[in-house]
Amino acid sequence: MIKYIKWRYFAITNLVKEGATMEYFRRNLYLLTVTNFLAASSWNQVVPFLPQFLNELGVHEGVQGWAGLIFSMHFVSGIIMQPVWGKISDMVGRKPMIVRAGLCLSGIYFGMSFSTAPWHLALCRFLNGALTGFIPGAIALIATNTPKEFSGRYVAIAQTGSAAGNIVGPSLGGILAALFGFRTAMRVSGVVVLISTLLVLLFVREENKVKPKERTTLVQDFILAFKMPVLTSVMGTVLLSTTISMSIQPMLTLYLEELNPFISKALSGAIFSMPGLAFVLCAYRWSSLGERISYPPVIILGLIGVSFNTAALSLAPTVWAFALIYFITGIFLAALTPCAAALIANKIDDSFRGRAYGMQQSASLLGGAITPALAGLIGNVLGIRYTFICMGSLVLAATGLLYLQMRTWSQIKVISFKASNR
Q: Which backbone phi and psi does 115 adopt, to 5 degrees?
């Protein structure tokens, strides 16, 4: 027993020494990957169960309308505010913005747990989109404080942490809600995010705090962004990625019930998590491939694969065939956001990078805001099966346009702030 205690003491001592001597950017990666996982899992402990929480609040008529409004609030405010926080992060640093976002998100979760009316939830969701940005801030910090030869793969690893949280979160939230109720689940989420924020505050280092080279307004930033072919390509990539995801997810359980009216909720939930599982397994490999052959061809390959597999979902004869095709779709989806984030890390100047990640997040939120309505319209008019065909065809056509744009800049090594402003 004494030998075991001594062995554990020396093991812990060596681990602490190793952490103290580790390059700060590697320590940042490990810590931010863990905190991204915690933040994403806490988010998904809450969001999937908001419609059921509305019932608990006494809303029994018009639940779908309230649920749609509550979900959209996050996107509406986030589209506007994420570039603002990105701009501020370029001026004061990324770490303060992560801490700010974490504290706000924790407070919002606690606020939601005390809601007594549906408009309370809508207000909290609006504030959530307006005030948070924990994961984009963490990605930006990694990208700006990691040597360029590692930045692409490090970004992919951090995003894999958040994808893993997306998988675990709904199951954990369901267990907590079943055992202790929705309000306790929300408070647990608040505590988890608060712990994540404290870890960032205490242990993450930001050595590279690049100041903007000139003062600009937010309107000037957007004008400047649209003069950067790399950044517009990144925003287009993220928009198309979200378009596919958000066109499938709202229809998923309904379509699975069409294929098998007796499908269990557990199996539906497992299939729902397939893209997240594929992301965890494949994102790093796609990023490594992008490092070897460059990111634009990987993005185009991913979009083509996503387009064809999304359309192929309409042909699935059984639930199991659908699950297989959906998993393959997730494999190609895993190529998109890590490579897009790596392009910002490698092609956009440090002084504009916070704003670039904010605009990338805005593009994703824009896709999340408009796609469910478009997919729902197609599904109501033509049927759910044709939604997959139409959205796959739309993304394939847009991929052709994105390919033509990428050809104009894919040989450029670095896009500097000043060069982009000419």
A: -65, 140
Burial class (CB in 10 A: 0-12, 13-18, 19+), 249: middle
pTM of the model: 0.77
* pLDDT for res 333: 93
pLDDT value for 160: 85
Q: In this structure, are 178 and 227 located in the same domain? A: no
Q: Are residues 187 and 246 in the same domain?
A: no
Query: What is the separation, in whole angstroms, between the first and last Cα of the chain?
Result: 70
Q: Give residue 7's pLDDT.
A: 43
* 154 and 272 in a common domain: no
- Asked if the structure places residue 135 within a domain, the reply is yes
Residue 195 tokens read as 């712990």
Query: Do 278 and 422 sit in the same domain of this protein?
Result: yes
CB 292 within 8 A of CB 176: no
Q: Which residues contact 138 (CB under 8 A, 6 or more apart)?
A: 32, 35, 36, 94, 98, 158, 200
**Which of residues 209, 239, 274 is at a domain's end?**
209
Q: Under DSSP, is residue 405 helix (H, G, I), strand (E, B) or coil? A: helix
DSSP bridge pairs for 203: none
Low-confidence winner among 13-17, 78-82, 217-221, 251-255 (lowest mean pLDDT): 13-17
Question: Phi and psi dihedrals of 348, rounded to 5?
Answer: -105, 135
pLDDT, tens digit, 9 for 90 and up, residues 224-256: 888 888 899 999 999 999 888 888 876 777 788
Place of tokens 């309308």: 65
DSSP string computed for 153-175: HHHHHHHHHHHHHHHHHHHHHHH
**What distance in Å separates the CA atoms of residue 241 and residue 235, rounded to the nearest whole number?**
10
